[in-house]
Amino acid sequence: MNILVTGSNGFIGSHTVQYLRNKGCYVIGLGRKEKSTCKVDKYVSCDMASEKLADVFQICVQEMPIHAVVHLAADMRKEPYGVEIVSHNCVGTQRLLELCQKYQVKSFVQISSLPVIGKPMEHPITENHPLHPPTVYHATKIMEELLANYADDQYGVRTVSFRISAPVGARMNENTIFPTFVKNAISNKDLILSGYGTRKQSYVHVRDIAQAIYLALVSEEAHGVYNLSSENLISNYELAQKCIDVLNSKSEIIFSGRDDYMDDYCWDVSLEKIRRDMRYEPQVGIEQAILELAKYLCC
């Protein structure tokens, strides 16, 4: 299978490329950097927001048929860049979908974001949860889902959009809570919690995200929007304690005294739909995720 992967240099992109190549796929990476930062079979440099995308796509198709597109590129900035974010994300996605239609690409898989729902109000969180995007970026993710659904309904391009929960793994953003706790536990530094530490998150390992993307490509019955998460539901306090225990750390858990307005948030994600249509089962548990990230950070 020949697959074009946009955003191939990114955190999720680089892991997905490796997973797909291990499955025997021929991977064409697409990114804004001049050279690929991960191993691909072919790499093309192009800005998703540029009209040159059509020319780049045509050249790739002339060399070989493209069987699927995995769209991972995104402008993840927050306000005040709203107009640029909408232009990059929505226009770029529509360009890709029209190119898939033009060149008869059979499958289109993209990454969306579980926080498009805003505050979780229904438990467990299903794909039918009401949508209340907290930022313009999240609003564009909803629009990308709708554009993909439209292409599926009207033009026969089979599309799948994954709403991912908190992704973790090597090369992730080290300023977020998961790697911060792991780094501090390695160094026996205090793990500092805001609020009561009761916010619950479902961490999904990037390798499981790559697994789901592959399953979406080969599962003909997969269409539409899916939650993509794991069984790793854990509170911030429990995560801190888990890092200390797993890494045999002498760190202590300290409460900062600052409020956490998300203390009552619980991201308990339903995996019923993705299990039914793709037979997806998350493979990486929370302890393994902590150990693997610790090993990466110590290198």
Strand and helix map with partners:
Elements: E1 2-6, H1 11-22, E2 26-31, E3 42-45, H2 53-63, E4 68-71, H3 82-102, E5 107-113, H4 136-155, E6 158-164, E7 166-168, H5 177-186, E8 191-193, E9 200-205, H6 206-218, E10 224-228, E11 233-235, H7 236-246, E12 253-255, H8 272-278, H9 286-298
Parallel strand pairs: 1-2, 1-4, 2-3, 4-5, 5-6, 6-10, 7-9, 8-12
Antiparallel strand pairs: 9-11
Helix pairs in contact: 1-6, 3-4, 5-7, 5-9
What would your notes on this structure say?
- The protein has 299 residues and is an alpha/beta fold.
- The protein has helices at 11-22, 53-63, 82-102, 136-155, 177-186, 206-218, 236-246, 272-278, 286-298; strands spanning 2-6, 26-31, 42-45, 68-71, 107-113, 158-164, 166-168, 191-193, 200-205, 224-228, 233-235, 253-255.
- Helix 5 packs across helix 9 (286-298).
- The mean pLDDT is 96.
Element-by-element helix/strand order: EHEEHEHEHEEHEEHEEHEHH
Low-confidence stretches are: none
Structural class: alpha/beta
Portion of residues in beta strands equals 15-25%
Strand order of the largest sheet: 3-2-1-4-5-6-10
Major β-sheet, in short? 7 strands, parallel
Number of helices, where a helix is a run of at least 4 consecutive DSSP H or I residues: 9
N-to-C CA distance: 34 Å
User: If you average the pLDDT, what whole number results?
Assistant: 96
Percentage of residues in helical conformation: 25-40%
In one word, what is the shape?
A: globular
Total count of strands? 12
